[in-house]
Amino acid sequence: MLEYNDILDAAQRLHGHLLQTPCVASQTLSEITGAQVFLKFENLQFTASFKERGACNKLSQLTPAQSQAGVIAMSAGNHAQGVAYHAHRLGLRAVIVMPRFTPGVKVERTRGFGAEVILHGDTLEEARSHALELAAAQGLTFIHPYDDDAIIAGQGTVALEMLQQVPDLDVLVIAVGGGGLIAGMATVAKALRPGMQVIGVQTSRFPAMVNAVLGTHHPQGSSTIAEGIAVASPGELSRRIITERVDDLVLVEEGDIEQALVMLLEVEKTLVEGAGAAGLAALLKFPERFQGKRVGLVLCGGNIDPLLLASIIERGMVRAGRLARIRVSARDVPGSLARITATVAQVGANIDEVHHQRAFTMLSAQNVEVELVVQTRGHAHVAELLAALSAAGMDAKVV
Question: CA dist 4 to 37, 190, 193, 241, 307, Å?
Answer without folding.
Answer: 25, 9, 12, 12, 41
